[in-house]
Amino acid sequence: MKTIVDIFLSPGEAMDSLAERPRFLAALILVVAASMAVTAVANQRGVLEHSIRAELENNPSMEQIPAEQREQITERAVNLGVKFSWIGGLATALIVLLASGIFLLLAYALAGGGVRFAQMFAVVTHAWLPAALQHLISIPILLAKDPEMVDVKNVVSMANLSPLFSPTEQKKLYAVASSLDLFSFWVIALLTVGIGQIFSSGGRL
Predict the structure, then answer these.
(1) Angle, CA of 155, 157 and 159, to the nearest 5°
(2) Are 77 and 52 in contact (CB under 8 A)?
(3) Between 145 and 86, whose confidence is greater?
């Protein structure tokens, strides 16, 4: 638990500790739990349902379908979307973490470095803790705001430049601005620090 706290307060020391003694279970559980928690709140508040309905209503091809059939399609899409959101909340977090760990491991090996998967995965899971923090910050926002006013893909909008653009009139700029947020850069910075600590320690210990 100390390492998790140190990731936010003293990331260099935390990553140095992980390079010497890799451990990732607690961080992995926190990242996955935060993802599942925000999924639960979003579903309970109907945010995901509203998002799916709004996306289908704004789809020009839906206008050519009879009203009754449109409603049936929408209901099926909502039911499937909510069900798959639970699988996605769990699987996406695990797949992203594992894929990132494997990719960085291979990249490090190709660069001539020697590193164990446990070391790289420990760095990756702990570097992703700011993303878990973002999920936790999302929860009170989801609870406080009208579901119709929430962008499910950009709940913590104050962490990026998306408020400067219109989500309807400047869609591309809004999408780019919302993807470049503080938490993403934070994760990248921690990954950089962690890989640097592995390199300094000589990789395999």
Answers:
(1) 120
(2) yes
(3) 145
